[in-house]
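Memo to structure team: turn this sequence into structure tokens by end of day. - J.P.
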Amino acid sequence: MAVGRYVTDLDTGDLLGPISYVISPFSVREYCHAVELDQECFQGKAGQIAPPTLIHLEKLRLYRHACPEGTGSTARVHIEYDATFHAPVPVSVPLRVEGKVTERQMKRGREYVHMKIDLYRASDNQLLVEYRDTVILAYKPAAELAATATAGA
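Reply from structure team:
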């Protein structure tokens, strides 16, 4: 588990989780109302599943547990994500999520953090979703980078 106080403390190799939890039918219905998903598979009581975009909340769940004091001195900007769904994410079933910071890099004054997050059904350890996520933690203008480099020299 990451030992940072803030999300900005995360570094390559940090492990987040595992966290066990259950998604409630109410949470899925409310989320789906908010994003205007009215398909029966998301709204229905029998066999209800979580919509694919709900996977973004898994990252926030991991952040909240691993970085209890929040984002840090700068806000995150969500840049891109990619998810591979191996099976539907069931509602009212114990799940487990775990994450790993795969890379932290500086590029053109921006600090990028890449994470891999895996979501499993807890009862049989079936991998349901593989989620890859990239955020920018901070942006430093070229003048500020040059001043920092000069001061350190």
